[in-house]
């Protein structure tokens, strides 16, 4: 069945003379380099760094480079495109359905990605990552959400600690909690001293969240003018 599918796509081979399959990892990437006839030119690992990718690009200029989608695929694919490569990011779930192998290894994965890219890039079910700007904006939003969640956790910790000592704080907005808490605790110096370090951290988080909100609004304003 797989062989029939491959034969059906033989007319759409990539034009690049060199095809690079990359199995991405956190520290080192396994690569497999094929020539236009499918012969393996090189198999090795490269470091997961800009320097490692720059050397790969210099060794195989204008090569077709294919990889599975993953944590590192957004920035790596954008970087290699800037270097003049055609880059294919494969849909991992559909790709695995084609070449699922119990004897999994990074080397075999890189080989198969390269071979499928050579026969027909559509076999990789390519996906498109957003631009670097869009990816950075998404990360800013995600980091803001993380700050908000941790601020809530710290506020709850302060309120629980004080309640265990017989002092209840009501729950105003998170942004105004520090000012409210300090005002109430002025009458309880020892308790204020107990939680002051936490209040300092919560206050710093609130300032960072305000800055993130201003940055997000600045980025969105262009859509409304």
What key attributes describe this structure?
disordered C terminus, disordered N terminus, alpha/beta, six-stranded mixed sheet, 225 residues
Share of residues in strands: 15-25%
Mean pLDDT metric = 85
Task: Give me the number of helical elements.
Answer: 8
Number of strands: 6
Please give the radius of gyration in angstroms: 26 Å
- Spatial ordering of strands, largest sheet: 3-2-1-4-5-6
Distance between the termini: 54 Å
Question: What is this structure's SSE topology?
Answer:
Elements: H1 2-8, E1 18-23, E2 28-35, E3 40-47, H2 50-59, E4 64-68, H3 73-82, E5 86-90, H4 92-99, H5 106-119, E6 126-127, H6 132-163, H7 177-185, H8 189-220
Parallel strand pairs: 1-4, 4-5
Antiparallel strand pairs: 1-2, 2-3, 5-6
If you had to describe this structure to a student in words, what would you say it looks like?
With 225 residues, the protein is an alpha/beta fold. The protein is 54% helix and 15% strand. The chain has helices at residues 2-8, 50-59, 73-82, 92-99, 106-119, 132-163, 177-185, 189-220, and strands spanning 18-23, 28-35, 40-47, 64-68, 86-90, 126-127. The chain has a 6-stranded mixed sheet. Helix 3 links the parallel strand 4 (64-68) and strand 5 (86-90). Helix 6 (132-163) packs antiparallel against helix 8 and helix 7 (177-185) packs antiparallel against helix 8 (189-220). The chain is elongated and about 80 Å long.
């Amino acid at each position: 069945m797989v062989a029939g599918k491959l034969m059906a796509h033989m007319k759409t081979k990539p034009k690049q003379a060199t095809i690079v399959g990359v199995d991405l990892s956190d520290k080192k990437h396994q690569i497999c380099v094929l020539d236009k006839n499918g012969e393996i030119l090189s198999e090795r690992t490269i470091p997961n760094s800009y320097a490692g990718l720059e050397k790969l690009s210099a060794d195989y200029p204008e090569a077709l480079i294919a990889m599975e989608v993953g944590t590192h695929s957004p920035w790596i694919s954008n970087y290699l495109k800037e270097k003049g490569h055609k880059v294919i990011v494969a849909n991992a779930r559909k790709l695995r359905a084609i070449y699922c192998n119990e004897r999994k290894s990074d080397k075999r994965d890189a080989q198969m990605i390269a071979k499928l890219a050579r026969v027909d890039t559509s076999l990789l079910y390519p996906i498109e990552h957003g631009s670097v700007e869009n990816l950075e904006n998404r990360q800013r939003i995600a980091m803001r959400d993380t700050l908000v969640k941790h601020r809530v956790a710290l506020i709850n910790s302060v309120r629980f600690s004080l309640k265990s000592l017989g002092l209840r704080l009501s729950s105003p907005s998170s942004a105004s909690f520090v000012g409210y808490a300090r005002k109430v605790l002025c009458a309880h110096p020892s308790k204020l001293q107990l939680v002051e370090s936490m209040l300092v951290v919560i206050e710093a988080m609130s300032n960072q969240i305000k800055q993130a909100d201003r940055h997000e609004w600045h980025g969105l304003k262009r859509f409304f003018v």
